[in-house]
Every structure is written in C-alpha cells, then in structure tokens.
Amino acid sequence: MHTLSQLEGNFVDVDGRYVIVVGRFNHHVVDSLVEGAVDSLVRHGVDAEHIDIVHVPGAWELPLAVKRALQAVRPDAVIALGAVIRGGTPHFEYVAGGCNAALGNLQLEFDTPIANGVLTVNSIEQAIERSGTKAGNKGAEAAMAAMEMVSLMRGFGDDVSQSGEQA
Length: 167
Description:
single chain, alpha/beta, Rossmann fold, 4-stranded parallel β-sheet, two-stranded antiparallel sheet, 5 helices, globular, LS, 6,7-dimethyl-8-ribityllumazine synthase, EC 2.5.1.78, LS/RS_sf, LS/RS
C-alpha cells in the first residue's frame, strides 16, 4: 500500500470550471460575498468565462441547486454563498443546520469540492463585517478554499470522474 508523504493544494493549478450558487435572501450582504469570490477566482487565473453563477431564493434552497449544478455542469468545484442571520425563533438552526449538512453530503456524494461560504451569524452587523469589512470577505475565503481543494484533488494523480470510475 502506498502512503502519501505530504500533499497539499496550491493556488497555481486552479483553472477549471466553478459554479457559485447564491442565496438571494439578505442580498445586501450576499452580493459582496459574490464579488469577493469572483475577484479571488479571476485573480488566481480562473477564466471568467468558466465561472457560472446560479441564484436561488435563500440558504435553504442552496443544496438542491448545488446538486443540479453538479449533475448538469460537472464543475471542478462549487462555491455556496448565502447569509442566515439569527432571529427570535428556532428557524435559524433549521435552515443553517440543514443547509450545512446537505452541502457536506453532496460534496461526498459527487466527489467534488463544495466550499461553504454561507454566513451563519447572530446579527446583521456580524454579516456585514464578514462580507468585506472588519472580518474580511468570506466569499473570497470560500473561493480560496475551493481553488485549494481543486489543486489538492489534482494532486492525487488519477482523474476520477464524479461517478467514482477511472476516466
């Protein structure tokens, strides 16, 4: 059995097809996340023509659209962006938890990186801080994670299709 001594992704071998799936709810925050993600991808050499953006109503709808994008486009990575802001009811936990669990499951099911850039915050102020002000831009960070994972997956050497068969 061969073991890997050390393997990590980089930000050089990142060109490919990326799909950004965006929840429109809290669009005043999410629009900045999208700008940050696209800017990061393009700055690292991803052709803007290879970036698709899909809009859905909110974070709850992200997993279904991500699944369809994985099936139809077969991208190298997906970046899920949205903002779930805690309110006075348990709705926050259901939406955030369900979205996160489903995205994690899809990543494993399709053997394709899905960067989770869905903000789950306690206040609108926290959301604004994470969409390009004090705490950086989590959309840009999600794009960086997606690119690093694309590079890492390529580092395993063999081209494995989403069905798990050798290509």
